[in-house]
Specification:
With about 260 residues, the protein is of the alpha/beta class. The chain has one domain (about 15-245): Rossmann fold (3-Layer(aba) Sandwich). The protein contains 8 helices and 7 strands, in the order βαβαβαβαβααβααβ. It has helices at about 20-35, 45-55, 70-85, 110-135, 150-155, 160-180, 205-215, 225-235, and strands at about 15, 35-40, 65, 90-95, 140-145, 185-190, 245-250. The protein has a 7-stranded parallel beta sheet, with helices on both faces. The longest helix has 26 residues, at about 110-135. The structure holds nicotinamide-adenine-dinucleotide (NAD). Nicotinamide-adenine-dinucleotide binds near residues 22, 23, 24, 68 and 96. Nicotinamide-adenine-dinucleotide binds near residues 20, 70 and 192.
């Protein structure tokens, strides 16, 4: 059970990728409830329409943009348009992601599938971080939050593409967090274990059972728990944390 901080993000602006579903949606809704000017990005127009409708109960100018987060030109243009329409960008949360092959040995993973997963999970993390940092630099303030996974720390057998892409996200956050450490901008990531979202509909049940069985708390995480940690990381209060991948695993993580 989490408790909102009603005016924590008043005067702040935020873009949430993957805001049409799951973790991104939960974060976008909490940011809007707590006063932020919010835009969500997703590839799914119907999901965008539904969530923007919810966000407008709290932020009447909340908006959605249908785009592919791995499209460099589209991402750059969308950030520029958002800043022109609303205000300089303070917060970028990148929650769009895909799983790709699961319960699949590397010998059965096609190069096309591997590259598709890396493109959406890792290349897009590079693209959104690059353009967000450029937009935030003049104001000497910003919060970038990426989504890795415990699979990127430990490696989940049967999920080599996903695990490799998420390990890359951890490295990206470490490098860019240090690079911009003196600029007022923080760059962090979260590594969840299993959170019940539509993402899991794309994962083989045997794979979900494997991952859930490794959570010492004996349960999956909730959307409230994911949004609570995310919103603290992108708040002003989290001013001495950068380049780090935060744990959200019910005890699975060993480092
Ligand atoms: N749910 C979990 O158990 C879990 C565990 C570890 C890590 N994660 C990570 O957390 C993040 C959020 O996961 P989720 O469970 O909320 O996923 P989800 O599938 O529920 O939602 C992801 C959203 O991203 C959108 N999306 C996917 N590819 C896109 C693209 N190329 N361009 C634009 N939008 C795109 C989808 O349409 C969807 O609305 C992901 O990066 C995921 O890998 C999730």
């Amino acid at each position: 059970m989490s408790t909102d901080h009603p005016s924590r993000f008043r005067g702040r602006s935020a873009i949430v990728t993957g805001g049409g579903a799951g973790i991104g949606r939960a974060i976008a809704e909490r940011l809007a409830r707590e006063g932020a000017a919010v835009e969500i990005w997703d590839r799914d127009q119907a999901a965008l329409d539904t969530v923007v409708g919810e966000l407008r109960k709290h932020d009447p100018q909340a908006s959605g943009a249908r785009l592919d987060v791995a499209d460099d030109v589209a991402v750059s243009g969308a950030i520029t348009a958002f800043c022109a329409r609303r205000k300089p960008l303070d917060i970028l949360i990148h929650a769009a992601g895909i799983v790709g092959p699961s319960s699949t040995p590397i010998t059965a993973v096609s190069l096309a599938d591997f590259e598709r997963v890396v493109r959406v999970n890792l290349t897009a993390s590079f693209i959104v971080t690059k353009h967000a940092v450029a937009a935030m630099t003049p104001q000497k303030y910003g919060r970038v939050l990426l989504f890795a996974s415990v699979a990127g720390k430990e490696g989940n057998p049967g999920m080599c593409s996903y695990s490799a892409s998420k390990a890359g996200v951890i490295g990206l956050a470490k490098a860019v967090g240090k690079e911009v450490a003196g600029s007022g901008i923080t760059v962090n990531a979260i590594a969840p274990a299993v959170i019940r979202t539509p993402l899991l509909d794309t994962v083989d049940q045997k794979q979900i059972d494997y991952m859930t069985a490794r959570i010492p708390m004996g349960r999956t995480g909730t959307l409230d728990e994911a949004a609570a940690l995310s919103c603290w990381i992108v708040s002003e209060e989290a001013s001495f944390n950068t380049g780090f991948t935060f744990d959200l695993t019910g005890g699975r993580a060993t480092y």
